[in-house]
Amino acid sequence: MPFLEFVAGSISGAVGIAVGHPLDTVKVRLQAKSVYKGIFDCVTKTYLNEGFHGFFKGMSFPVLTTGLVNSIVFGSYSNALDYLSQSDRRLTSHRKQVSSLQVFTAGCFSGMVQVLVCAPIDLVKVRLQGQTTAKRYRRPIHCVAVILQQEGVRGLYRGGAALALRDVPCYGLYFLPYELIRKALTETGEEPGTFAILMAGGVAGVVTWACATPMDVVKARLQMSGAGGQQYSGVLHCMRVSLKEEGVRVFFKGLLLNSVRAFPVNAFYRFEIKMKLLRSYNQP
C-alpha cells in the first residue's frame, strides 16, 4: 500500500511542521537579523507588527512537500543501509546486522539527498519567514518566480553549501542515537512500539540540532543575503564577519528554540510511524 504509506507520512510530517513552525520562525529571525534582543523581544515584535499569522509565514511549502521529502530521505537511508549491510530491511533481524558506522554512513547519504531536494524549499521558507512585510514576496510561488528572475536557478540553492555542511554529517549523527534508543526501548524480537518511536525520534532530534545550530546560523544568513540582508561571499566569509561583529555566541543563536522544537517535530516525523500504520492496516 505505497499510497497509504505516503498519505500517513504526509499527515504525520504536516503535524510536526505545524507544531514547530512558530518556533522555527522566531529562530530564523534571531539568526538572520541582529535587531532583536532575544526570544521574547522577537515574539513580541512579530505579534505586534504582524499578528498571529506572522509566526506561520513560509509554512505552506514544507507542509505540501513533507510526504515527498520524507519518502525520499528515509527511502534513501533504508536503501543505503541495505546496500552497506547487504541485507533485506523486510527481515526482522535486519537492524541487528548493521554497525554504527554503516548507520552513520547511510544517514550521511540521506542527508546529501535531502540537501539536493530540499535546498530550494528551505530557501523559500526562510525568505518568507525573514520578511516582516509582503513588499518583496507575496507567496511561495511568487518568491520562487522573483528568485529565478533576479538570481537565476542558482539562486534557489543559495546557502546550499552551508545546508550540506549542516545536514550531511548531522543526518548521519541523527540515526545513531535514534537506532540506539529505539532498540533500547524495544523488546527483543518485537516491533518497536509508538513510545519507542516517539522517544527515539525526539531525543535524536534534540541531540542532532545541538550540533547543527552553528551551521544553521550561517545557512540562514546566507539565504537572507539575497533578500536585503547583509551580503556574504560564502560560508567562510559569513563565519568570519559574524564572529568579528557578534562574537562566538552568534553561532548558538536559536539553540534553545532548536532544542525545544526538535523533540515534537522529530517525534512526529519518523518514518516508522507511518510504517506502523501500514502494518496495522494489513493485519487481519
UniProtKB/TrEMBL annotation:
Transcription: present as a keyword of the record?
Answer: no
Q: Which GO terms describe its molecular function?
A: transmembrane transporter activity
What does UniProt give as GO cellular component?
mitochondrial inner membrane
| One Pfam family hit | Mito_carr
Give residue ranges of the Solcar repeats: 1-83, 98-184, 192-279
Question: How does the protein's chain sit in the membrane according to the entry?
Answer: Multi-pass membrane protein
Q: Is-annotated flag, keyword Nucleotidyltransferase?
A: no
Compartments where found? Mitochondrion inner membrane
Keyword terms: Membrane, Mitochondrion, Mitochondrion inner membrane, Repeat, Transmembrane, Transmembrane helix, Transport
* Regions crossing the membrane: none
Which family does the record claim for this protein?
A: Belongs to the mitochondrial carrier (TC 2.A.29) family.
Name of this protein: Uncharacterized protein
What species does this protein belong to? Xiphophorus couchianus (Monterrey platyfish)
